[in-house]
Amino acid sequence: MISTLQKTIRPVWAVRGLHTPAVEALKRPALEDTVTASYGKFISQVKPQHLSSVVLHRSKRMVLDSIGVGLIGSTTDVFELALEHCQHMYGADDISSVYGRQGTRLSPTLAAFVNGVATHSMDFDDTWHPATHPSGAVLPAVLALSDMMPANSKPTGLDFLLAFNIGIEIQGRLMRFSTEAHNIPKRFHPPSVVGTMGSAAACARLLSLDHSQCSHALAIAASLSGAPMANAATQSKPLHIGNASRLGLEAALLASRGLEASPLVLDAVAGVAGFNAFYEDYVPQPLRSPNDDGHMFLLEEQDIGFKRFPAHLGMHWVADAAASVHKLLVGPGPATFSPAIVQDILLRVPKSKYIDRPFPDSEHEARHSFQFNACSALLDGEVTVQSFSPAAIRRPDLHALLSRVHVEHPQDNPANFNSMYGEIQVTLVAGDILKGRSDTFYGHWRNPLTNESLRKKFRNNAGAVLPPEKVERLIGVVEELDRLGDCKALLSQLY
Questions:
Q1: For residue 28, what pLDDT is reported?
Q2: CA distance 319 to 326
Q3: DSSP 226
Q4: In whole numbers, what is the pLDDT of the chain averaged over residues?
Q5: For residues 465 and 384, what is the distance between their CA atoms, to the nearest angstrom?
Q6: Is the separation of the CB atoms in 245 and 203 below 8 Å?
Q7: 114: confidence class by pLDDT, cuts 50, 70, 90
């Protein structure tokens, strides 16, 4: 009897003769059941106890490394330009500190901007999979917002780390909804998209916004996101990270004042592009709110990649491969060779237009050139911070090697940081052929830097700006961050 009734019952819209738009509205999920709402609930409901020991350890390494690359980045021309612009174009607002500049303070949003620029000014910041630079967009915003809070209401170190990890988590979740996002980008620079969303999420949490306000913060951030890959290898690329940090913070502050935006920005709505405007194959899924059983952050299963020298991540494969051939040429110990003995250099690398630069003209182009990094490592045995100085770039021996390079793109070498490789074949005038290959460089998430190596990198970077005693204090403060009653000890060591 029941089955017979079920067959004869007509939907209410069929009985009432509703128009198609009204029918579609009835079919839509309630706003509290949308993907966008699920993200807002996660941001507002996840708790410090959901951070596992692995996530705490890995995220503290990210904080330390990001501060270090931001400090050395504060010595660059592009940082100086950004800082001067903010000081000259905006009124003084002495609230939030600036990396490496004692006595210089800006408004929270401008401090987030210039510190984000510093972090990416040398392309020395961390990289994740799917491909993005997660820390640089989030940490400057969380630091600036913490500076903004009253002295007696600073976040605890654990709350600081929770906000930071929320910002990282949101980026990773959004990128996993797209196959396109897993590959080296072609259209949008990922930190300018997901980084802005991560910054907004982290700041919304630090501001203790409710779940609805958190959803609106993400939707506002989506309207402030996106930068084209055409500006890679230029002075403007670091602005992508600076703007992501700044505009995510602004999105959270606007949401805190009651500004609203689309409640469906993360959902797939036919005919109206939301976040899927950035990734055409975007297929979103709700993010479950944490419960008593906890929440596994993506950082627990997907570690981070740290760079040993300041260049696009893809350069690290070819540099390691070329360094191995350098050893074959000169033997153990420091030594050199004449480029005249080299007849031909073949690189086998993924096809990616913006990092295929045969003769780079600037440090920014050199940081995005397979050819330059391979030849630098072949000539010197390594690539370092100094490799990108004007004098190093102009060396006749380096240009002699560059003139002998040609590139192949094997089909089994995809433009994907999780599965690519770098290979070099050097043919000598005498007829010998020397080969080198790197499948996983030291610093990749499959072969992470040891704590000792990471601290060495930090000391070198931070030591370019800070005295040794402050560098060591920063290492200690970050190591103890999850146990600090407030984060003032961290904020006071950045300049």
A1: 52
A2: 10
A3: -
A4: 92
A5: 18
A6: no
A7: very high
164, with CB counted inside 10 A (0-12, 13-18, 19+), is: buried
Cα 157 to Cα 131: distance, rounded to the nearest angstrom: 28
- The closest alpha carbon to 428, from 342, 332, 325, belongs to 342
> Exposed/middle/buried for 459, CB within 10 Å: 0-12, 13-18, 19+?
middle
pTM for the complete prediction?
A: 0.92
- In this predicted structure, the answer to whether residue 3 has a pLDDT above a threshold of 70 is no
pLDDT above 90 for 263: yes
Alpha-carbon gap, residue 459 to 467, rounded angstroms: 10
Residue given tokens 């993907």 in the structure block:
35
Residue 68: pLDDT band with limits 50, 70, 90: very high
Closest CA to 292 of 1, 482, 30, 46: 46
Q: How far apart are CA 136 and CA 116, in angstroms?
A: 6
Alpha-carbon distance 118 to 437, whole Å?
A: 32
**pLDDT for position 30:** 63
Q: How far is CA 95 from CA 104, 348, 465, in A?
A: 9, 50, 21
Cα Dmax for the chain: 92
Report CA-CA distances (Å) from 45 to 49, 331, 399, 420.
11, 58, 56, 38
Specify the pLDDT at position 480.
98
Which amino acid, residue 102?
Q
Cβ neighbours for 7, distance < 8 A, ≥ 6 positions apart: none
What pLDDT score does 31 carry? 63
What stretches of 257-358 show up as alpha helix (H) in DSSP? 298-301, 315-330
Going by the DSSP 8-state scheme, the letter that residue 332 receives in this structure is S
- CA-closest candidate to residue 164, choices 131, 138, 144, 187: 138
